[in-house]
Amino acid sequence: MLEKLVELCTSSSTLYWLVLGSDLSIAAAYFAIPITMAIVLRDRKDDIPYPWLWLLFVTFIIACGLTHIAHVWSALAGGSYLEIHAGIGALCALVSVGTAVAFAFIIPEIKQLPSPKQQQIKLEKIVSERTGEKDRLIREINHRIGNQLQIIRSMISVESRRSENSDVLQVLGRLADELDKMGGEHLQHSQTDYLRRDAQAKPIPA
Question: What is the average pLDDT across 5-34?
Fold first, then answer.
C-alpha cells in the first residue's frame, strides 16, 4: 500500500498536476495581493507615504504572477511559447530591477519616517502638556473667582457694620447668604471636577 502511494505521488502525471496546481495557486495569490494593496491605497492614500512606490510594488507582484500564468499556459498547450515567456520575463525583470533601484534610493528617507510608536509617544506627550496647561488655567480661574467672591463678601460685611437701616441690613444679609452659598458650591465643584486626581488636594484659597 505504501509503495503504491509513493509510486502515485512520484509519477509523472501526479508531478505534472502538482506543478500546474502550484503555479495556479501562486498566480492567484500574486493577483489577489495587489488587488488588496490597490484597495488600501485608494482608501488610505493620504496616510501612505510614497504612493508611487506602492504602485511599483503592485506592478512587480502582478508581473511575477504573469510568469506563473505563462508556465501554466505552456504546460496545458504543450508548447514552449518562447516569445510570450521572453516578453513576460523581460517585463518582470524590468519591474523587479526598477523596484530594487527605487528602494535603494528611498531607504534613507524611509528610515527618517517616524514609527507609529514614536508618533503615539509624541502625541501622548503633547496631550499631557496641553492637559497640564488646561488644569493650571482652570485652577487659576477658580482661584480668582474664589477671591472675587470673598472680596464681595467682605465688602458686604463692611457695609453691614456701617449701616443702621434695618431694610438695608436685611438685603445685605440675604446677599451675604447667597454669596456664602455660591462660594461653598464653587469650592465643592472645583474640588470635585478638577482636583479629584489629587487625593491630598487642599481647598483653593480665597
Answer: 75
What are the residues whose beta carbons fall under 8 Å from the beta carbon of 139, sequence distance 6 or more? 190, 194, 195, 204
Domains of the chain, with CATH numbers? 2-113 (no CATH), 117-194 (1.10.287)
Q: Grid coordinates 510594488 are at which residue?
A: 57
Q: Rounded CA gap, 159 and 55, in Å?
A: 81
Q: Once rounded to an integer, what is the mean pLDDT over residues 139-151?
A: 84
* Residue 34 burial class via C-beta count within 10 angstroms: exposed 0-12, middle 13-18, buried 19 and up: buried
**pLDDT value of residue 3:** 55
What are 167's three cell numbers?
A: 431694610
**Rg value, the chain, Cα:** 39
Local structure of residue 49 (DSSP, 8 states): S
Q: How far apart are CA 174 and CA 152, in angstroms?
A: 13
Cβ-contact 54, 36 below 8 angstroms: no
For CA atoms 30, 36, 39, 43, the dihedral sign is negative
**Which set of grid coordinates corresponds to residue 133?**
496647561
